[in-house]
Amino acid sequence: MVGEGGVEGLSMRKLAAELDVNPMSLYHHVESKDALLRGACTAVAQGLALPPDDGTPWQEQLRALAHAYRSIALSHPALWSYVNSHPDLVEQEEGMWVVFNRVLVAAGVPAAELLRIRTVLYTFVSGLLTAEAVGLLAELDPAGDAETTFDAAVDLILDALEARAT
Amino acid sequence: MVGEGGVEGLSMRKLAAELDVNPMSLYHHVESKDALLRGACTAVAQGLALPPDDGTPWQEQLRALAHAYRSIALSHPALWSYVNSHPDLVEQEEGMWVVFNRVLVAAGVPAAELLRIRTVLYTFVSGLLTAEAVGLLAELDPAGDAETTFDAAVDLILDALEARAT
DNA sequence: ACCTGAACACCGTTCAAGT
DNA sequence: ACCTGAACACCGTTCAAGT
Lengths: 166, 166
Prior knowledge:
Two copies of one chain form a homodimer. By secondary structure, chain A is mainly alpha-helical.
């Protein structure tokens, strides 16, 4: 909500100015700039629309999870890149990891490899979204449409998982 | 070389202090802090060991390229994360993209999909390396070894490419 | 309990002045 | 051609003092 403007141009002083208040008054409601950003991150993370555990095939659920994640990530690119450089914040996304596990198990990933595969797939998607958020995607594939590229990426992951299951 | 110490704690003033010189003297040799960082980035990028075009199978060449990239990326994590948020710097890695193209063509990727596949694979690997550089990898998969995780990731990509080729 | 002004220790960068 | 000091417009944060 605050970082809506630019990227990381948020400053306590500007924020205070926008709120018509003394910069130092902020420190009565938040411990530090980092604490404020963390709060904002967990707030937007709440908006992640996790696919329910109905009977739909795992492929569809994985696709749904990926798109839900893309949706919130790109809704606040600045905050998301902040999350991505703060491991503890990523790990804190409890619900997501639970759903991710469930889907991968359904996909036939053996328990011994679950953590590794999950981590690899998460960082893969995370890398693509970072590229999109930062404008790298448009630079590397100017003719391509971001959404279809994302779909292609998810397809590629599904291919790999299915190849691995057999 | 300069950013060896921490992450982005490099400041023109500290750098000048370390060089026992007036902070403002630096601006006679470099246009700005950004220009300096760009210079450093292209300097380390020179060290990328591209796999030669001998007859070795594309799988091996792709693996070699991936590991070479990981090697320079992790040798200067701070600079690399700087590169990753500056699309023009990424694109500038001419030689790498040429080799990447050659390998993907050898892997049977049709010309029409080359750019998209290449972009997706690059951002995938980039995401994993970012996770490793920032400590996210260790947090998400504490028991895992970073190198074997990277190998697994490359294997997954090879699986997907092979599945796609048939 | 909340707010405030002054202050501290930093930034990147400009610019006029020196050698 | 190179260096320099002072200055500008910023940061996040502390702290003593106010209401």
